[in-house]
## 1
Amino acid sequence: MTKLTRWWMALSGAAVALAALVGCDARRLERLQVGVSIEADVRREFGEPAAVLPEADGARIFEYPRQPEGQENWFLTIGPDGKLREVRQALTPANFARVTAGMDQAQLRRLLGRPAATAVYELKREQVWDWRYADAGQARLFSVTFDMNGRVVSTASRDDPRYEHGGPSGR
């Protein structure tokens, strides 16, 4: 078996695993009901959240990122009454449009969730965070560039380079 064949097989396996993960989330969400499901139901379906973000009104947002390989970051809000209040997919063009110059990293993390990748460019005095997402079925990458003070200076979207020339899912 050639090195290229092994690489394509590994890539295909990763695509199948990713598709299964996306399907699993859909099934998990179908079993939850806003206003009815309680925190224990959310934890049973999704497990322990990657982060719990407190809200001023006593609600808590449970973060379930699917980065670095997935294209979604889920936020499930548990109200002060212990019931599921909201289910939100954070990686959307509408949320990307809310990212503005001067926003700090904590604000961005709360808006979009954990990034797929981060990189520091010392010579440029910049840091870049990337999120993988899907836009109308197209695999995309949303990037935010920060200055060395952790403030947003620019954003960009482009095709996810992993999917060029057929990529993991054969697109």
Note: Residues 126 and 148 are 6 Å apart (CA to CA).
## 2
Amino acid sequence: MGTAARVVAVRTATTVVPLPQPLRLGAMTVERREYVGVRVVAETDDGRTVAGESYALTREAPMAELVDRLVAPHVVGREVVASDGVAARQSVGAVWDAALRGSAIVGRVGLVRRAIGLVDVALWDLAGRLAGRPVWSLLDDGPDLAGSAEPGVGGDRGAPSRAVAGSPGDVSSGTAAAVPRPAILVAAYPTPGRTARDVADEVLAHARTGWPLLKISRSPDRALMRDLLAILRAELPEVTGRPTVAGRSGVVVDVGFGWRDADEALADLDAWGVTGAAGESAPALAWLEDPLLPEDAVGAARVRDASGLPLSVGDEVTDPEVFARLEARGALDVPRVDVVAIGGITAADPLVRAWAARGKVVSSHVYPEVSVHLGGAAGIGVETFDRSPAGNPYDPAPLLVRGGPVFDGGHATPPDAPGLGFTLDPDRFDLEEPS
């Protein structure tokens, strides 16, 4: 089987799924979820066709058009080589660099970065299928991997040690096995009309099925949040059989950039009864997520210092320097990486490995089918919504894909199938060649 192919097409499609009831996320109200799907098609020298796929939330932005107009022209005609992980990293990285520099006059961060990330994820899926190996094993190939702000840019920010031959993470010996990663479940949103007890019972029901780390979103109703968190702090440890451990077990509250400044954040946290938690035997929360706009590193540091709560930031962040500024201020206990927003696997994997090498617990934002491949066996915590066949009322993404990781006992095991190990539902995404 050949291990090189040339890209001949980049196709996009968009699908919309209405939500059963609106969700409040910070200052936003979400009534529907819109997703874009991408397929990168390549041909080998012997005439075979190989394709890779990706998907992401559009957040109501014209993502398909951005891919079509600003990224695809720099990708079509380029070669992907997947004889091993080193070759895949170099060839896909070269395409990534061409797309970044080709759109630099209007891009680099923001929506164009997301568009590059969508295509990059599909290219890695293609590379894995071309090599006949899962992406996680390709990423573990090669010499020590140093993290940097950008692929191909100097500045060693820490390199994890390689897996030893014959270990679960070793791919050179041909005995690689998928290793389960810790996982987090987005368990409940405090939607209108529900009491604190209602929301707590939903979270506790998930905990009883084996989830040690569960997330809820912030409600602007201070009294509801106070009562909800009091219930969970009292009852969740007995259900899970473990105390709250920062980054690994307990309750996460996602603020969704909902507070304007540190003063507003600390007033709410004080009303919730969770400030001053640093002196307790266990933290009040596993982490507090995205309290302010990610760029407000000074405000985040103040919230961190005054509340004693571990902070996590990263959802929708497209600029690696945002992470650097937060970390420099001591306001990044749990880095979160949105693999599409940060620019794809090429950009995300070095970041995850560098954080893990520095001893940080790392989490992902949505797209578990992709993030489960990042950073090695202990590299990342994989986020998902409830994946029952009936779906969930918060995010229908699990219904849009076929395959992906296996979730069990609060862990996610990456697939052994070539590529990313999932495909997009063709009934949702029409990615076939136009007739």
Note: The longest strand covers residues 4-25.
## 3
Amino acid sequence: MKQTSKRNTLFAVLTIMATAIAGGLYWRCNNTEEPRQLTAEEMRLEHAALIDSTLLRTPLPIDSIMVEQLYSGISAKAWILVDDSTGMIISQNNATDRMFPASLTKMMTCLLTLEHGNMGDSVEITPDVFVTRDSRVRPGDSYLLSNLMKEMMMVSDNVAAVALAKHIGGDTLSFANMMNQKAAYLGMDSTHFSNPNGMPSDSNYSSARDLLVLARYCMNDSSFAQIVGTQFVDIPLLDGRHMPCDNTNLMLQSYEGIIGIKTGFTRLAGACLASAATRGNTTLYLILLGSKNQTTRFTESAALLDYGFSVIKTYQDMQKLQ
């Protein structure tokens, strides 16, 4: 009687185990999970951070004398030039050194305004945000947030940046914290922001490489790209007046394929320029910091972009032959 009971118990246990194993095999066969697809934001972040220094290890048949002359004629202290589709570094110099970014800082201010601001809000230029007379806006002026943001980027207005920072963050210190949180999110390890406009400060610094990541991330926002690619806009004030704004980025008028992005200048930072240009299927990004003056930043950027397009064409031709 006891042996029969034991056999029945053992049979029951074996049956349960067999059922569990069979069920597990069935679940694995019929519930194979596909790899999780990246979200649009994850793809945007991944693309912005794509910078590859290994792709150009094979020497290209580029005139070395031409390259030497190009580099010897550049006064900028740092730069990085990258092919957007592959992240391939075409040229760089002191790209990870901490530098003063001047008004390239406003790329982050614009980005956070787009992400956190209500474009239909009204923003007044109050006396406490009027930090410099070198500004197109004046105390008492009021703008739609969307239009003040455009004015800030088009003419690089320092007071507009402070007004937007106060409106979005409550005060400039809180807004600077938002800037640094976003920089950390983007992996900008050599960056710290202390103000929204890039005015001289030992605690407001970045690197060409970090600013490249920021620029590529920002340009993936269609509103940002539209603003920085515009040559002229007539900004309305809420009292009915208008402010004509010509973009300080003269490359928009003179360089084939240019689509942005932002100028910058202080005595400490020198002349700076973030550029993006598209020709055919190739888009290049360039960050240039510490150029000699506000003219050389354009000529040097144009020369580096020309070189970049010639390198990409040669590289693509060689890939076809392989």
Note: The radius of gyration is 27 Å.
## 4
Amino acid sequence: MTERTDADPTLRYSISVEAMERELRLCGFALLNHYLTMHHVIAEHVRLQPIEVLILIATTTGNVQRAVRTEALPDVLRASTALPPDLVVPMSRRAIARVTGLPTETVRRHVDGMVRRGVLVSTRKGVLAPNRLSEHWAAGAVLRLLEAHADCTEQLVALKAIAPPPPRPARSRRT
């Protein structure tokens, strides 16, 4: 079980290529299971096909790239408040195809359907994923995604494929 705490944001995990290769099947299983859990959590609330989940994730990520730079996002916008339009970058269908590896025609067909259903919004400059963070299910879904990520991380730590950073040495007090 994952414990919820306020964590130190400066911690970094190290990757052991040797342990990953030794436990390749189990590492792969943990990561793929995590991906499937992510798909399930998202699809359960937005009702999408697997390709559409991939397109939504790519679009959402592309839309907010400018905003998620730490120095660009004011504290007031860090929760579920909609981002100002100048921080949201529409994605072209071609860019979505490039990021996802899907054929452009496949992306176009799915994006058009997603726009008709209100999952995406089409603009002159590309498509946008509407802000869903204020919807009643969003916080619970993000929490489930974080828990799934933590569970996957714990599995990879148990396999010694990744390792938490060593404890920081205690600061000595000079008197």
Note: The helical segments are 17-22, 24-46, 50-64, 93-100, 104-116, 138-158.
